[in-house]
Design brief:
It is a single chain. The chain is α+β, with helices and mostly antiparallel strands. It has a domain at 191-406: Alpha-Beta Plaits, CATH 3.30.70. The chain has helices spanning 34-39, 93-102, 118-123, 131-134, 162-168, 202-211, 267-281, 291-295, 302-306, 325-339, 377-392, 407-413, 417-425, 436-440; strands spanning 2-3, 9-16, 23-29, 46-49, 65-68, 75-79, 84-88, 105-106, 141-148, 152-156, 177-184, 186-187, 191-199, 217-222, 232-240, 285-289, 313-320, 343-352, 363-372, 396-397. The two termini are 31 Å apart. Bound molecules: flavin-adenine dinucleotide.
Length: 443
Amino acid sequence: MSVSPRGYALADLDLSTFDRSTRSTVRVQRPDRYRLLESLPPDVPRIARGSGVSYVAASFGDGAISQELGAFDRLLGFDAEHGLVTVEAGARIGDVARFVLRHGWSLPVVPGHPRASIGGCIAADVHGKNPARDGTFRDYVEALGVFDPLHGWLQASPHENAERFAACHAGFGIAGTIVHATLRLAPAPAAYTIRRLPVANLREARDVLVAHAGAPLLYGWHDGRARHFGRGVIRFGLESHEAAPRAKAGADLPVQVAPWRACAWTPAGITAMNAWIHHRWCRAGSSQVDVASALFPLNDARAYYGGFGPEGFVEAQWLVPYATYDAFVDGLEALVAKHRPAITLVASKLFDGEPEGLAFDGRGIAFAIQLARPRATTQRAFLDALTALALEQRARPNLIKDASLDAATVRQAISGFEGARARLRAFDPQGLHRSDLTRRLDL
Ligand SMILES: Cc1cc2nc3c(=O)[nH]c(=O)nc-3n(C[C@H](O)[C@H](O)[C@H](O)COP(=O)(O)OP(=O)(O)OC[C@H]3O[C@@H](n4cnc5c(N)ncnc54)[C@H](O)[C@@H]3O)c2cc1C
């Protein structure tokens, strides 16, 4: 740890992407008061870091100081009558969700990892359990407090600094450091009744997802092996007025689950896992689940993440428009049959939004495909072929998830990419906010 004459301390931290393609020793500042955010000289390259649970290196990069905001996690205001909460940007989504739940309110968009920070949710414009119904995080942000090294402290909302406000969403830290946010809440149900509908393939999955577009929770799990590709289950949850028996609250999923010594997701391991999930979950039925457990089902998935071992894993997530859905699924099935990649899961979600800037949004069905041993030749060949297929079928990539994307691919995949980039960089003409993500994609 070193302390500068201006009073800020820096520590060296070894950080890596989830697929281990990028590893860096990074200088990290952990400010715990606002004046320490200001103390970094304005010409020093930096990038905001929330909890660091992004799959890609979005909050660190060579030559930039990561400003980790975890100490800024206070509740600043709560309007229980109108359903508004103001929190510092380092507050974790799981903590905020549980606080408002105790008062009968909920956050409509909550990503899968309970430790994602509010700042990280805004800067990646995350989606929750049914983006087709609830949109993305930006739809619930009323106002922001932002620190810009060149312009100081700013308030931003649709009525004040509106362009900066818009740029902060899916802005990946480029439009300034979000320090606090006011979020709009929705009344919370007492519990969810979650129904399971088995599907034989991804075509059936589309029909079931579309038929339940209005459900508050809606997502699918699918087998990724060639032999059973796409079979799985769609889970949809409806609000229930009867309280569910409260599940014993376990600890939140850690930021990085300690990897097992070797990768468990060999072909035999993947087969065993799929057989277990198929037996346990892929049957029609329903259960009553308390709201907190429904929001963070991944808290029970430690063994799944640890099982990737020291090599980690990669996730490609593409949003496929309805018009090219059948062609995409045909192509995906053919690629899986040809490459036989070690896919550990395929997850499906329905979207019905207007893509803004670089955000992961649009109309269609998104597939998240997770693969073990990301650097093995077979996996890389499959990922390259998947990217080519996705481009051909006009799918949209999720920049915060897939570390295998390059600058040329995202320019081809996201219409209006250059305009969106220019709108972001207008707030940072000197390129002070930079990360490995902004370097790789030339953001
Ligand atoms: C198991 C798992 C499940 C997930 N499920 C979902 C899901 O369902 N839906 C979804 O959309 N995503 C999901 N994600 C992705 C995750 O929600 C996002 O990557 C989110 O951005 C992580 O928040 P963070 O605080 O860790 O951000 P970080 O990883 O620290 O940073 C992410 C980006 O936000 C910027 N940033 C962070 N804080 C600030 C700030 N205060 N001001 C300005 N910029 C800031 C960083 O510079 C960086 O560009 C999941 C991730 C994991 C590991």
